[in-house]
Every structure is written in C-alpha cells, then in structure tokens.
C-alpha cells in the first residue's frame, strides 16, 4: 500500500494543505520549528485509524471540523480516495462525502492494526536511540534484538521488569518476598484457629456452603480459561487471514495461468530474446550486404582509365614537383637582373659625389687603404672625446664657481642659535611615566566607580548610599548558613507536623465513621443494652426469689430472661463486631490524644519560625541594608562584598590620582616659568587646574612646547654647522674642476700634433675635421661594395637561366607524349603541366578505386553466405523451441514464456506465504485453512468483541465467586465460641486473599516471561538467517563499509548473541560499539524486518522523524541512499526540521528520486469555529515571551519555563 496524496484539510495548524507523495523514490517533509512537522506525522495515524475523540489538534479548527484526506494505492493497483472526519459514527467518507465502509480501508491496511503501525512502520529519534540502548542493555541477545527491531516495544526492559516483579513476589528459598511472607503468616494463623476452634452443630451446613462456593469458583475459572483460549485462537486467526487470502489468490492465479495454455520450459525466457536478436541481426546484415554489393558493382561499372596518362604519371609528378621551384627561379632571375642594374647605378652616383672624374671601370679610383682609414677613425674618435671633455670641464668650472658663491651667501644669512640648557633641565625634570601614571590613576578611579555603580544597580540599592552600604553591618556567611539550616529544619518539621496532623485527622474521621456504622448495627447489642437487660433480669429474679410469685411478675421475669438471653445470644454471635467496636472506641481516644499533641507541637514550631524570622531581621541592623529573603542572602552578601571591594579600590585610586595631580602641578608650574623666561608665551597653572583634573593635559601641552623649542634650537645649530661644511666642500669642488680643465686642454694640443702628418698623407688640409675626412673614405668604400654586389647578382642569374631551359625542354616532351599541344610561353606551359598532373592523379585514383571495389565485392559475397547460415540457424532453433513448448507460433511462445515467468513468481510467493502461515499457526497451512473455512470472516470482529465482553463478565462473576468463597471459608473458620478464633480466621482469610492474588499474579508473570522468551527464541530461529543476512548488507552500507559482517555466536550463558566484525577483521560486542553505530545497527535490523513485511504482501509507508540527528554527514548520505534503494518495496517518508538534510539528499540522490515538501512556519491566529479562542491562543495572550534563536540549528523558539533560557531549541536538546 502506498499513499499517493496526503490531504491535511483541517488538522492542527494546517488548512487545505496537500502533499503529493506518488513520485517514486524518497520523500522528505521539511519544516522549521512550529511548522507542524510532528502534527503532519501524527496525522497519518489519525487518518488510518480514526481521529482521537479528545484530540489536541483543535487549536486552529474546532474539534467537529477536524478532517484528513488521502489517495491510497493498493497492492492490486487500485486507487481509493477517502476523507476521515471527527465523529463517532461514519467517520470515513469518500471524495463526494458519501459514507465509506471501514472494510475498504482495512483491506488496504493488509491487517496492520494501529499498534503495529505505530510500533513497526514509524520510527523517531527517541525510539532509534532507545533501540540502540536496548542492544547494549541486552548485551546483543539476538532473539531480543530481532523482535525489538520489528516493533518499537522495549522487550529487554519488559523481560527485566517481569523478572524483577516475579522475584519480588516469590523466591523458592526466600523469606522477604510477598508470597513467602504470606505463606508463613497463613500457616501461623491456621495453627491459631485450629487450637482455639470448637465445632458447632451447624458446621456441616457451613462447610457444604463453602464447598459449593469453591465448586462454583472452579467452574467459572474453567469457563474463563476456555473463553480466553478461544479469544487467543481467534486473534491469531485474524492475524493469519490476510496471508491465507493472499495465498489463495495467488494459487487461483497459478491455476488460471496453467489453464490458459502450456508453460515454457525453464530458460526459454532468456533464450527467446537472444534467438530473436540473432534472427533480426542476420536479416538486417543480409539487407545491408546486398545493398553494399549493388552499390559497389554500380560504381565499378562507371569507372574508365587512360593508359597514356598512367605511363606518364611518374614524369608528370616529377615535373610538377619541380614546377614551383622553376617558377621561383624565373621570378628570382628577373629580380637578379633588376638588382644588378640598380646596384651599378648607385655605385656610379656615389663615386661622382667624391671623385667626379673617376669611372667604375677603374677600381683603383675607389679603392681605400684599410690602415689609413683606421688611423683616421681613431683620431676622429679621440677628437670627439677630447672636444666633449673640454666643453664639460669648462662648464663644470663655471657651475662650481656659482655653487661656491651661493653656499657662502646662505652661511652668512643663517642666525646664531641660543643656549637651551635651562629649558632642557626643566623638561628632563618631569618624570617620563608621570602622565601615564596620571591617566592610569584616572582610569582606575573611573573603572572602580563604574564597577561600584554596576553592583549597586544590580542589587537595586540607592547610589547615594554607597558609603553607608560599604560600612553597613551584615551577618557572616556562617551565620546565614546556620540560620538557613535552622529555618529549613523548622520548615521541614512544620511540614512533617502538618502532614501528621492531617493524617491523624483523616484517620480519626475514618474511625468515627466506622464507630457510627458499628453503633447503627442493630443486630449486635451494645454493652450498655446488654448490661441493662441483665440488671432488669436480676431485679425481677430477686423479686421472684423474695416471694413474688404472682403471674405478672413471673411473666415479666420470663420476658426479661428471654430478652437477656436473646441479647447474649446476639452478642455471642456478634462477638467480633463488639470487639471491633471496643477497639474502635479505644483507637478514637488514642487518636484524639495524638492529634492534640501533634497540634501543640505544630503550634510550637510556628512560634519557633516567628522567633527565627525576628532573629533574621536582627542580623541586618542597618536601615540602608534591610534583611533580604533567606534564599537571596548569599547573593546580597556577594554583592555587598563586591561593593566593599570596589569602594576600597575607588578610595585608593582617588588617593593615587590626587598625589599624581599634585606632582604634575608642581612640574607644570616650573616648566611654564622657564619657558616664559625663554621668551615663549605659555598658559599659566592655577590651583583649580589640579583639582578639576585639567593638570594632565596642561602638563602635556607644556612638555610639547618645551620639546618643540629645544628641537628648534638644536635644529638651528645643526643647520649652521652643516652649512659651514657645505661651503668648504664647494670650495674644494671648484679647485678640482679647474685642475681638470687644464688637463683636458693639454690633451687637445697633443692631438693636433698627431693629426697633421695623417692629413698630409691623404693629400688633405690639416684644417679639415677628422669626421669629414672619415665620411669621404666611407663613401668610396660604399662604391666598392656596390660594384662587387652587382657582379655577384649577374653570376647567379646566369646559373638560374641554364636550369630553367632544361625544365622547359622536359615539359615539352611530356606534353607531346600525352597528346597535348605545347604552348609557346612559359606561363602557359606551367598551366598545361598542372592540368596534366591533375588528370594523371584522377586516372591513378580511378585505377586504385577499381582494384578496391573488386576486393570489396569478393569480401561482401563471403559475408552474404555467412549471414544466410546465421539466419537459417536462428530459424531452426526458434522452431525447435516452439516444438518443445507445444505451440505453433512465436507469439504463442512469448505468451507461454510470460505464463511460465508469472507462474514461477506465484510459486515463490506461495512458498513464502506458506512458510509465514506455518510459523504463525500450529498445524501448518492446511490446519489454518480448515480453521478459516469454519469462521465467518466478516463476523470475526464482532465475535472477538463478544468474546472480550464475555471474558470481562466472567472475570467479574469469578471475582464475586471468589469473594463469596472467601466469605464462606471465613464463616467456616469463625464457627467457634472464641473471639480469638474469629479474629485469627478473619486475618487468615485476608492473608489468603492476598496470597491468592499474589499467586495468581506470580503465575501470570511466570507464564508471561516463559511466553516472551519462547516467542523471542522462535522469532530468532525463524528470522535469523534472512533478516540477519539482509541487515548485514544494510549495516555495512550505513557505516560506509567500516563493518562487513554480523555474526550470531553462543555466549557463556548459552544465549545467542549478536557480534559485529569491522573491516579490519576485529569482532566486537555491543558494548564496544559507539552509540551512533548501535543506532545504525538497530536501523538496519528494522529495515530488514520491514522487507519481510513487504515480502508477505503487507507493505505500508515507513515514516521516519529526524532519525539522522546522531549520524555524521557521510553516514547520513549512506542512510538516504539505503532508503532510496528500498523505496520500491515500501514507501519511506522522512520528516525533519533541518534544511541541510534536504540539501544533502539532493546532492547524493538522482534528481528524480528525491522529493522535498516544505512546510511553512505556523503563525497562531483565530479559530475557524465560533466557540471561542483556543487554549493556545489564550496562553499566547497571557504570556508573550520573546523569541530566541537556536545556537545549533538557527531556528526560532520560545522558552516558557522558569530559570535561565536555554541556548538550543527543544528539538536540538
């Protein structure tokens, strides 16, 4: 069963909210605190099994208006839409509002009742952690772990509680348990009764009555046992009926399949798709091969080849490869001819510029001696360097002279610095740390005052009373503690005295009521009435004895004797009542005396309390510090101690501050006087500056002025000394510049002496500059270079011209051999050669293609033969399969295979259901079917209800019979003449009644314990292998592969326990696993158990509420993947108020497998009904505490309790 849509129409904070849950995969319902997440989770239970009559979810909608709806898909694929209303009858209606039979929903629930749904198909964080704790407390006992994982019941705690209560009732060798003590007391009382009892005449009738009562009680007990056994049998039958119905339906479907036609042999379901695939592949391959053969043959027929072009292809290719080179050579030849002519023209023009009369045909006219040119070049460089150095030296002399004159003027302009020794002495006399100490003292005063004011404000005292509070008298902590102990002792004594007085008053009232009842009992005479009757009888007897024999006196005497005897008989018969009356009277007197003493003691304790209160006030004598509440006294003492501490600190800091201010004032006055004597205008120091706290800034200002003045004077002295050094340096620089100028000038004169002979050797005037002569020589060298370059171009051109001629002769021969007319020009011959090369390439390509097509045709013919053989083989195998199955066509074969697959699945389901039924019903499936056939299933619920009512009535009747039996036995025991026997017999019956109840309870506990242990063991044996194997895989996934095996081992006490093996091979018990790992193991066992429900056809939605709170991110992701893997077997729905869980699910699961439903935060508003505000609204108006934000998850919450507000919301706590 799956929920496709959940409609929260009017429930809790929701109005017309619909959640679509039909998509496959994992559904996450996310909402912040107060969004109604828990309400939505609880709505599933109310939807399936009815809205509670006293539902707490009426704080928005009135109770009659509550309604839930859903669209549910059953296992047969049918969808049922219904609405659940809040009413006593016909609470289930369809989508149109028409009443819907509850049996429709019961069939969808597959026999899962409310208790099973809550305990098995719902899991929250508390239950998950409790399950992990049960694994620890049960020390891994396997049967308990498997059965607990199937539901939320704490079976370990239940077993321990049964054992503790059983042992508290009876121990075989014990004496303290209740039954042991009762048996001992019963034996003692029986001995007392036997010793004091005297059998009367009516003993036999009383004994017969007791025997009859005992027989009736035995008959009722047997009838009750029979009804209880019948109830258990029918309840077990109701549980197994869905499985029987499912098994019958599957068997009927199996017979229908067998009747529809033959079933295919095993393995045909896998063989048929393979054979058909081979057949289709062979047919497609044949068609493809045929198409390829036709296409290639057509292409081969259209190919033609020119043999002349094939013969000339190699030469054509060779010439084509050389063509680009030849074309480049032709372009290069033209360039060389042009460049040679240009170079000769440039050489002639350059020669005319230097020697107009010379010619290029005379090389001697422009040949330059290399050595002569180098000498000219060297002298030219020397001249340029000397000229530059000489100009620089002359400029340097002028610049140094101007600089020296300027420095001398600046020195003369500087003032003479004054002596600052007095100012420096006054400034040095001020301690460096004085201002810091002054600031620190002022800060200390402010801090102490602020701390003192803070303590006063927190305590609620008047700040004007600080000094009085600091000096106020207060008790010591020992006095407070001693007084508190005395007051608490007095309070406890008063409370004890009040309880004692109340108890005595209640007991006295009960005894007085009992006395009234005993006194109103007219069947038992009072002692006064019996004494008066005896006195009347004795008086008449004396009259008779004294001679009063008249008839009236005798008659009166006989009546008095009869009356006294009657009263005596009645008193004898009611001896027990008389004894009780006397005992009650004595008890009343005793209680009155005790009550009087108790009330006097209580009054004395109240006086002591008043005296303690007065003494407490005396401990706080000062009016500024009144006596606080005793519970707040230590807080007041703490604050008073803080106040005194801060007050002392403030006083000491004020003294330090006054001392520092006085010292600062003295230094400021002296420094100001010295500065004024130095001619500076500075502020004066007045006495008010010291008192008002302005001395610190004033002293700091004076120190800054003095420091600035000293710095100014020191700077002036340094400036004058520095300027003197600058004048001396400028004078030295001027002398050096003049010496450098003289040295360079002498070098220039020496150069002129070397230049004269060189100019004469070149037939030049010595007044020409070396650079001009060097230019002429370079021009002649350029003429020689241009002439040589022109000769090189001419030689290269002749070589290229020969190669071009050979190439064109070869081209003419190839063109002529291929029948192409030879063009006259070189360009046309190049174009014809390129066209011939392309034709040759096309011809060669057609030849290669012809050979390729011929080979392809041969290969395709072979493939066609192979595909024919494959198709024939597949057709033969398909025919053989049809023959083995007994069908005539492939379609019938497919149908037979489908029937065979469905039949195998049905047989598997029937076997599983049979196993489940055999485990649940003694006698197996046949016995369960026989029993189910004899029962009207529609009338079974009413029959169970009648049985429960009959059992309740029989239990009441048996209780009355037991009471009658006890009374009969008590009457039998009381038939004697002794009040001691009556009292002992009554007490013995009371002990017997207690013993009977305790023995019956002990028997139930023993049976319940044995049944629980047996059920756990049977469940373990039946489910250990399938559930443990599946849980092992789930546990490994949930822990990220850190645990690889779950093993069942036998412990020392013989129990089968569960152990977990790490990936390292270490085998661990439950006590060695971490808390989170035990939680994940419990989750794995629960999920494995749910898969068993799904296999039995009883799948239900599985609801999880914030179970991943204790998982880290890696294991949370693993848990989400596990739930997604199981989502196809049952429907997991996760409720959470943590947004990161939804984000993580989107990251680790495919987009179409995770579906997040968001709930908005609920804002309280008006109720929809007119019956007044809801309790939540009234509470919200009466108290509106501020919202707080959770430190862990960030959500808002409201703290409405006492004490300090918590830092985390209730969910995170």
What's a quick, concise take on this entry?
The protein is of the alpha/beta class and about 1200 residues long. The protein contains 32 helices and 15 strands.
Feature tags:
single chain, YhaN_AAA, 1213 residues
What would your notes on this structure say?
- This protein has 1213 residues and is of the alpha/beta class.
- Among the domains are: 1-121 and 1156-1182, Rossmann fold; 169-259 and 895-1012, no CATH class; 263-312 and 818-885; 477-634; 1187-1213, no CATH class.
- 70% of the residues lie in helices and 7% in strands.
- The protein has 32 helices and 15 strands.
- A 5-stranded antiparallel sheet has the order 2-1-4-5-6, covered by helices on one side. A 5-stranded parallel sheet has the order 7-11-12-3-13, sandwiched between helices. Strands 8-9-10 form a 3-stranded antiparallel sheet, with helices on one face.
- β9 and β10 (1067-1068) form a beta hairpin.
- α8 (203-260) packs antiparallel against α25 (890-920) and α12 (370-413) runs antiparallel to α22.
- The model is unreliable at 1166-1184 (pLDDT under 50).
* Proportion of beta-strand residues: 5-15%
The counted number of beta strands is 15
- Biggest pleated sheet: 5 strands, antiparallel
Distance between the termini: 35 Å
What percentage of residues falls in helices of 4 or more residues? Answer: over 70%
Q: What is the rounded Rg?
A: 62 Å
Given the helix and strand composition, which structural class is it? Answer: alpha/beta
Number of helices: 32
Strand order of the largest sheet: 2-1-4-5-6
Mean pLDDT comes to 79
Q: So what's the overall shape?
A: flat
Spans where pLDDT lies below 50 across 5 or more residues: 1166-1184
């Amino acid at each position: 069963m799956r929920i496709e849509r959940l409609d929260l129409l009017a429930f809790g904070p929701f109005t017309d909210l619909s959640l679509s849950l039909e998509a496959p995969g994992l559904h996450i319902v996310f909402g912040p605190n107060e969004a109604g997440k828990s309400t939505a989770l609880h709505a599933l239970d109310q939807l399936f099994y009815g809205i509670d009559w006293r539902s707490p979810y009426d704080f928005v909608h009135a109770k009659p208006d509550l309604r839930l709806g859903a669209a549910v898909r059953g296992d047969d694929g049918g969808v049922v839409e219904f609405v659940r209303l809040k009413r006593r009858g016909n609470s289930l209606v369809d989508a149109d509002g028409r009443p819907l039979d509850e049996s429709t929903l019961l069939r969808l629930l597959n026999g899962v009742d409310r208790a099973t749904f809550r305990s098995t198909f719902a899991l929250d964080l508390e239950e998950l952690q409790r399950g992990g704790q049960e694994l620890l407390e049960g020390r891994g006992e396997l049967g308990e772990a498997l059965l607990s994982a199937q539901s939320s019941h704490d079976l370990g705690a239940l077993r321990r509680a049964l054992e503790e209560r059983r042992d508290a009732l009876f121990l075989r060798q014990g004496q303290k348990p209740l039954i042991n003590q009762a048996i001992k007391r019963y034996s003692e009382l029986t001995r007392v009764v036997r010793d004091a009892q005297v059998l009367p005449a009516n003993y036999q009738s009383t004994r017969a009555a007791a025997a009859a009562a005992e027989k009736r009680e035995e008959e009722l007990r047997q009838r009750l046992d029979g009804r209880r056994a019948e109830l258990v049998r029918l309840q077990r039958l109701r549980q197994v009926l869905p499985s029987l119905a499912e098994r019958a339906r599957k068997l009927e479907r199996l017979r229908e399949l067998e009747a529809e036609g033959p079933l295919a042999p095993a393995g045909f379901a896998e063989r048929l798709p393979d054979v058909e695939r081979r057949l289709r592949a062979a047919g497609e391959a044949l068609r493809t091969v045929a198409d390829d053969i036709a296409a290639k043959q057509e292409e081969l027929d259209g190919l033609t080849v020119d043999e002349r072009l094939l013969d000339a292809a190699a030469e054509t290719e060779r010439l084509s490869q050389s063509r680009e080179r030849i074309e480049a050579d032709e372009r290069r030849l033209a360039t060389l001819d042009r460049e040679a002519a240009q170079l000769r023209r440039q050489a002639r023009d350059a020669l005319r510029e230097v020697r107009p009369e010379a010619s290029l045909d005379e090389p001697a006219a422009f040949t330059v001696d290399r050595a002569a040119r180098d000498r000219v070049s060297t002298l030219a460089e020397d001249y340029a360097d000397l000229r530059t150095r000489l100009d620089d030296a002359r400029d340097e002399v002028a610049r140094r002279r101007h600089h020296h004159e300027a420095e001398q003027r600046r020195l003369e302009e500087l003032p003479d610095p004054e002596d600052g020794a007095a100012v420096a002495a006054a400034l040095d006399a001020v301690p460096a740390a004085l201002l810091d100490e002054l600031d620190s003292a002022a800060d200390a005063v402010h801090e102490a005052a602020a701390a003192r004011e803070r303590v006063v404000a927190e305590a609620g005292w008047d700040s004007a009373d600080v000094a009085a509070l600091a000096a106020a008298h207060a008790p010591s902590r020992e006095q407070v503690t001693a007084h508190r102990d005395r007051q608490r002792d007095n309070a406890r004594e008063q409370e004890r005295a009040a309880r004692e007085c109340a108890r005595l008053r209640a007991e006295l009232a009960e005894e007085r009521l009992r006395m009234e009842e005993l006194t109103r009992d007219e069947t038992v005479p009072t002692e006064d009435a019996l004494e008066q009757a005896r006195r009347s009888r004795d008086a008449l007897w004396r009259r008779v004895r004294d001679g009063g024999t008249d008839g009236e006196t005798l008659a009166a005497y006989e009546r008095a004797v009869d009356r006294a005897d009657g009263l005596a008989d009645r008193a004898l018969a009611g001896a027990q009542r008389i004894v009780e009356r006397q005992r009650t009277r004595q008890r009343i007197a005793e209680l009155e005396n005790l009550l009087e003493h108790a009330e006097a003691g209580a009054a004395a304790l109240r006086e002591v309390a008043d005296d303690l209160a007065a003494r407490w006030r005396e401990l706080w004598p000062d009016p500024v510090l009144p006596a606080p509440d005793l519970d707040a006294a230590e807080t007041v003492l703490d604050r008073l101690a803080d106040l005194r501490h801060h007050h002392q600190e403030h006083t000491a800091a004020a003294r330090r501050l006054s001392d520092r201010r006085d010292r600062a004032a003295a230094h400021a006055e002296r420094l100001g006087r010295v500065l004024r004597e130095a001619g500076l205008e500075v502020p004066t120091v007045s006495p008010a500056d010291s008192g008002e706290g302005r001395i610190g800034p004033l002293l700091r200002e004076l120190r800054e002025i003095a420091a600035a003045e000293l710095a100014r004077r020191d700077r002036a002295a340094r400036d004058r000394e520095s300027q003197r050094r600058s004048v001396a340096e400028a004078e030295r620089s001027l002398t050096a510049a003049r010496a450098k100028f003289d040295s360079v000038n002498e070098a220039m004169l020496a150069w002129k002496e070397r230049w004269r002979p060189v100019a004469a050797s070149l037939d030049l005037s010595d007044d020409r500059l070396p650079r001009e002569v060097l230019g002429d020589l370079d021009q002649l060298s350029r003429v020689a270079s241009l002439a040589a370059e022109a000769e090189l171009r001419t030689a290269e051109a002749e070589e290229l011209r020969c190669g071009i001629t050979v190439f064109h002769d070869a081209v003419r021969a190839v063109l002529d051999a291929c029948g192409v007319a030879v063009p006259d020009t070189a360009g046309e011959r190049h174009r014809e050669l390129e066209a011939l090369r392309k034709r040759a390439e096309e011809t060669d390509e057609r030849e290669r293609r012809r050979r390729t097509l011929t080979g392809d045709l041969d290969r395709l013919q072979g493939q066609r033969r192979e595909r024919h053989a494959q198709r024939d083989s597949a057709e033969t195998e398909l025919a053989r399969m049809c023959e083995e199955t007994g069908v005539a066509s492939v379609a019938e074969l497919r149908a037979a295979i489908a029937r065979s697959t469905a039949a195998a699945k049905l047989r598997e389901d029937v076997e599983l259901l049979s196993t489940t039924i055999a485990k649940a019903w003694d006698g197996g499936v046949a016995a369960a079917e026989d029993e189910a056939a004899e029962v009207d299933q529609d009338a079974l619920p009413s029959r169970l209800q009648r049985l429960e009512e009959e059992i309740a009535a029989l239990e009441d009747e048996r209780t009355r019979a037991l009471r009658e039996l006890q009374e009969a036995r008590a009457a039998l025991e009381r038939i004697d003449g002794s009040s001691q026997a009556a009292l002992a017999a009554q007490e013995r019956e009371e002990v017997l009644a207690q013993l009977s109840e305790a023995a019956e309870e002990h028997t139930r506990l023993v049976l319940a314990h044995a049944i629980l242990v047996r059920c756990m063991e049977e469940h373990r044996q039946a489910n250990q292998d399938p559930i443990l194997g599946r849980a092992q895989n789930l546990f490994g996934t949930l822990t990220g592969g850190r645990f690889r095996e779950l093993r069942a081992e036998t412990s020392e006490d013989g129990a089968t326990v569960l152990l977990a093996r790490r990936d390292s091979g270490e085998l661990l018990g439950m006590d060695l696993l971490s808390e989170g790992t035990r939680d994940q193991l419990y989750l794995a066992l629960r999920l494995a158990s749910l898969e068993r429900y799904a296999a039995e056809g009883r799948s239900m939605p599985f609801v999880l509420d914030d179970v991943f709170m204790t998982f880290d991110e890696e294991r949370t992701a693993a848990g989400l993947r596990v739930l997604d893997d199981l989502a196809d077997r049952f429907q997991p729905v996760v409720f959470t108020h943590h947004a990161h869980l939804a984000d993580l699910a989107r990251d680790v699961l495919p987009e179409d497998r995770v579906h997040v439903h968001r709930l908005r935060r609920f804002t309280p508003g008006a109720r929809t009904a007119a019956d007044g505000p809801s309790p939540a609204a009234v509470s919200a108006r009466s108290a509106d505490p501020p919202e707080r934000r959770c430190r862990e998850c960030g959500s808002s919450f409201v703290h409405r309790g006492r004490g300090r507000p918590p830092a985390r919301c209730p969910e995170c706590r």
